[in-house]
Specification:
Elements: H1 2-13, H2 17-27, H3 30-52, H4 55-71, H5 82-108, H6 112-127, H7 134-151, H8 154-165, H9 170-177, H10 181-199, H11 205-210, H12 217-225
Length: 228
């Protein structure tokens, strides 16, 4: 009862994520944990969905993130930002899942010739569709961006998702990933270059004319992230 009263007082006066997590660590405060869950579950779900490319896995990984957060509560240090601690847990889970998927893909991959044939037929199926209107073009562009994003190496995909979908600043991304800000900046530039190379041959002139003019990988990311 006393813990409930203290939590209620904390809610009334307003408290930081760090204060709430400190109470979770010290007292196993389930009400403070529920408050953190309610506040952060949607950003974590979006992060996991973007990194894995699957909404169902995003939901599963979100739940696992908060289970692990509570399980690892004793490791939290008050001097650290709560968001950094939480992002790292989610990122590590996504990395594990992506590597598991990669091993599965390698195990199940058909021979190279069959993959090339399937890829060729798939591309034709996409571009043989009737001429789209502006909304359809935007939806198709979004799908192309998401696919190209998933094909980026992990180090590039993470900085893109954290910056363009989670709206973290470069310094915050550096803190989450444990790397210098300059490294984040160079990875971002490389990631955008790679996206541009991947997307350019797939955006046919007819699509480019129907869509907004002058779209770069960065502007496509900004548009596509606003639809999530």
């Amino acid at each position: 009862m006393n813990g409930l009263w203290i939590s209620t007082l904390a809610l009334l006066r307003g408290r930081s994520d760090e204060e709430a997590m400190s109470r979770v660590k010290a007292y196993d405060d389930h009400e403070e944990f529920a408050w953190l869950l309610k506040k952060w579950q949607e950003p974590i779900r979006r992060l996991c969905t973007r990194l894995t490319g699957d909404a169902g896995q995003g939901e599963d990984l979100k739940q696992e993130t908060f289970l692990r957060l509570f399980r690892n509560r004793r490791q939290y240090e008050r001097s650290a930002k709560f968001s950094t601690f939480l992002w790292r847990i989610a990122l590590n889970l996504c990395r594990d899942e992506f590597r598991r998927q990669e091993r599965q893909r390698q195990f199940l991959s058909p021979p190279l010739d069959a993959r090339e044939a399937e890829g060729s037929e798939g591309a034709e199926a996409v571009w043989e569709a009737p001429g789209p209107d502006s909304n359809a073009v935007s939806a198709e562009e979004g799908a192309l961006v998401r696919k190209a994003l998933l094909e980026l190496p992990e180090i590039y995909r993470e900085v893109i998702v954290l910056r363009h979908y989670q709206d973290l600043k470069l310094g915050e991304i550096a803190e989450v990933l444990g790397i210098p800000e300059g490294t984040v900046n160079s990875r971002m530039a490389d990631a955008l270059t790679r996206l541009g190379r991947a997307l350019k041959p797939k955006l046919r002139p007819s699509l480019a004319r129907a869509a907004q003019p002058g779209k770069s990988p960065k502007s496509l990311l900004c548009y596509e992230s606003s639809k999530t």
